[in-house]
Specification:
The chain has 443 residues and is α/β, with parallel strands linked by helices. It is 45% helix and 18% strand. A hairpin with a 7-residue loop joins strand 5 (163-166) and strand 6 (174-177).
Length: 443
C-alpha cells in the first residue's frame, strides 16, 4: 500500500505546484496577482497527507526488516484469554510445537510488573530449561544465537499502536503492549525481535482453517460438511471466560490468496431475553452492573456469565440452593463458572437450570451471527465451553440448538448453514502460530 501511496503523493504535490505557479487561473480577471486560496488549500492538505503517510508508515504493524540472518529464528504463539495464557514454541514452517505451556493469569500476575514479565519471560526460561537446542547453547549462547518472532492473540480490541487493554485480564483489566515487548532488553525477553498482537478471535478464525474436520469437530446439523461452500464467508463464535466473534472472507478477485479474518466485539452486543425469567435476569444484571438500559450478551454467555445466571437463580430461589455447591461457588474466585458447569448434571438443580439458560442464550446469539453473516462456508462454535459441555450443545433438543434454530421466518436459512462444534481448545493458539508465520515471512 505504501509503494502505491508514495508515487501518488508526489504526483499530487506536483499538481499543486503547477496550480500555484499558474494562480491566475483562479484570480479575478486572470491578472495573476495574489495567490489562489484553492491552490493554497490543496498544498496544505497535501502536506498533511504526506505527514500522515509518514506517521502510518512508522506505526505500521507490518513487520520491519529486523531478522538477523546469522541467528536461528523460532516462533512463539500465544493465546491470551481472561483466565489462562497458552504459549507454544515452534520452528518456522512446523505445526508441531517444541514446547507448550499454560499459565493461569490470576496467579501469574500477582507479583510481576508487566504482563510479559508475568508470563512470556517464564515461558522463555522454560524453553531454555526444556528445549534441547536451547539447553545445549546455554543462556549466553541463546542470547547471542537465537531470535524470536511472536504473535499473541489477545482477548480485546488491538489498536493500531500494537497494544491492547483486556477488560477481563486480572481483577480490573490489564494492558499488553507488543512494541514494549520488542523494546524490552530484560534477559531472555531481549530475544523477541517482533511481537505482533491480534484479537483473540482473529487467532480463532485462522485456527479454524487448520482444523481436521473429520476428527476435531462435531456436526451440529446433519450433512453440514457436505453443505460447505469454500468461497463463502466463515463465522466463528466462542464462549470461554468471555464471548468472542469473528468472520472470514475470501476476495472474489483473488480467491487463491485464501481467507482473511476480521475481528469483532459482537460479544458486547445487547443481551435479549427470550422469556419472562430471562427478563428478570436482565433486570438483575442491570442492577448488578449499574447499567440503566442494557447488558452485554457476554454477561450471560461465558464462563463468568454462567456464574451470573446461577447467582441470579440462587437469590430468586433460595430454597433450592445446595449448600455444598453454593459454598464452593462462593470460594471459587474466577472459577465460579467452572463450579456451576461441573455440577450442572444434577437433575433439577440450580446449576443445571443456570446452564440451560446460558446455553439457550448462547445458541440464540450464534443464530444471530448466522443471520448477519450467512456463513455457508461454515459456522464454528469454538471456545472452552463447547467441548466441556457438548451435551448442552449437541442434538436438536439441546438448549443450544433449540434456540439456534428458533428464528421464525428465517428458519429455512438457518437450517441451510453448516454448523460445527469444535472439540479442542488450542484453536486460538494454532491461529496465533499462523499469524506469527505470516509476520516472519514478511520480515
Amino acid at each position: 500500500v505504501y509503494a502505491v501511496s508514495l508515487p501518488c503523493l508526489f504526483l499530487w504535490f506536483f499538481l499543486c505546484i503547477v496550480i500555484m505557479s499558474h494562480s491566475s487561473w483562479c484570480t479575478a480577471g486572470g491578472s495573476g496577482k495574489g495567490v489562489c486560496p484553492f491552490s493554497v488549500a490543496l498544498f496544505v492538505g497535501s502536506a498533511f497527507s504526506y505527514l500522515n503517510y509518514l506517521r502510518l508508515r512508522n506505526k505500521s504493524t507490518v513487520a520491519k526488516c529486523c531478522i538477523d540472518e546469522d541467528k536461528q529464528t523460532f516462533i512463539i504463539a500465544g493465546d491470551i484469554g481472561g483466565t489462562n495464557s497458552r504459549f507454544a514454541l515452534h520452528r518456522p514452517g512446523q505445526k508441531d510445537p517444541l514446547l507448550l505451556h499454560i499459565y493461569p493469569n490470576e496467579e501469574a500476575l500477582k507479583t510481576a510488573s508487566t504482563y510479559h514479565h508475568a508470563t512470556l519471560e517464564p515461558f522463555l526460561k522454560k524453553c531454555l530449561a526444556e528445549v534441547d537446542e536451547w539447553k545445549e547453547l546455554g543462556e549466553n549462547g541463546v542470547l547471542s544465537q537465537i531470535q524470536v518472532v511472536a504473535c499473541l492473540a489477545t482477548a480485546g480490541p488491538v489498536t493500531t499502536n500494537n497494544d491492547v487493554f483486556m477488560v477481563n485480564l486480572g481483577k480490573s483489566g490489564g494492558s499488553i503492549d507488543g512494541n514494549e515487548i520488542e523494546r524490552c532488553q530484560d534477559g531472555l525477553l531481549s530475544l523477541v525481535v517482533r511481537c505482533k498482537l491480534v484479537n483473540d478471535f482473529v487467532g480463532q478464525g485462522y485456527g479454524v482453517l487448520d482444523l481436521d474436520l473429520d476428527k476435531e469437530v462435531i456436526e451440529l446439523l446433519p450433512e453440514s460438511m457436505a453443505k460447505m461452500n469454500n468461497l463463502a464467508p466463515i463465522c466463528c463464535v466462542g464462549a470461554g471466560t468471555g464471548l468472542g466473534e469473528c468472520f472470514l472472507t475470501k476476495s472474489s478477485l483473488a480467491t487463491k490468496l485464501g481467507y482473511e479474518c476480521y475481528p469483532s466485539e459482537g460479544g458486547h452486543a445487547d443481551f435479549v431475553p427470550r422469556g419472562s425469567l430471562e427478563v428478570e435476569l436482565l433486570d438483575y444484571l442491570k442492577r448488578k452492573f449499574s447499567s440503566e438500559h442494557r447488558i452485554s450478551v457476554e454477561r450471560v454467555v461465558s464462563g463468568r456469565g454462567l456464574a451470573n445466571v446461577y447467582e441470579f437463580l440462587a437469590q430468586k430461589f433460595p430454597s433450592r440452593v445446595q449448600p455444598n455447591v453454593h459454598e464452593e461457588f462462593l470460594n471459587a474466585g474466577d472459577q465460579q463458572g467452572r463450579v456451576i458447569g461441573m455440577n450442572s448434571s444434577t437433575e433439577g438443580s440450580l446449576a443445571q437450570q443456570a446452564a440451560q439458560i446460558m446455553f439457550a442464550a448462547y445458541g440464540s446469539e450464534v443464530g444471530n451471527a448466522a443471520l448477519k453473516f450467512i456463513p455457508t462456508g461454515g459456522m464454528f462454535v469454538t471456545g472452552g465451553l463447547a467441548p466441556k459441555n457438548i451435551g448442552m450443545i449437541q442434538g436438536e433438543d439441546s438448549p443450544f440448538m433449540k434456540a439456534y434454530l428458533d428464528k421464525g421466518r428465517m428458519n429455512g436459512l438457518i437450517e441451510s448453514i453448516p454448523i460445527f462444534a469444535v472439540m479442542n481448545e488450542d484453536v486460538g493458539l494454532r491461529g496465533a502460530r499462523v499469524c506469527a508465520e505470516r509476520e516472519y515471512n514478511a520480515m
